User: What shape does this take?
Amino acid sequence: MEPEDVGTELAEVLIDEQRLAQRVAQLAAAISEDYEGRPPLLVVVLKGAVMFLADLARAIPQSVEMDFMAVSSYGYGTASSGVVRILKDLDVDVRDRHVLLVEDIIDSGLTLSWLLRNLAARSPASLEVCALLRKRDALQVDVDIKYVGFDIPNAFVVGYGLDYAEQYRNLRCIGTLAPDRLPS
Ligand code: 5GP
Assistant: This one.
């Protein structure tokens, strides 16, 4: 889906398809260099990171494994609750594995810090984070993110996997929603 297909529902295109592709290729190059000789296990948080994962994994010139987790932190609103619940856990044991957690967006960082504690307790050989987007102003906790795609303003964004009430995930770009699309 193109931005034109959603018309006035989008306030602004923040990152277009081309910039996304360029940055994903750079991240993949950095990851493949850092993980040479120790293939990473990409741990992906559903559903927002799926488009990012699909492009990132295919741009990495070495075989990677993937596994998926689903957690809930937002429901249908737009503000972080800080309460994280595992809806689907990993299928594989991450003990002694080089885990790279692939995230869509870091807002308060509450979800991420909870996930990192949870995964660290499973004794991986290494544990790093690759996040497509980071809202720098919104960070409430100090989390170490090795790979960041873009630092973005503190606004609610959709597209490229990110939803609002399950809509807009298949938008090719990342954009901000028009104010009248969001609850007051
Ligand atoms: P945090 O715990 O860092 O505040 O929130 C992380 C999660 O909240 C993300 O994985 C994502 O699911 C959701 N989230 C945070 N900010 C946004 C946003 O601007 N747009 C969308 N669609 N989801 C967001």
Notes: The helical segments are 3-6, 17-34, 50-59, 110-120.
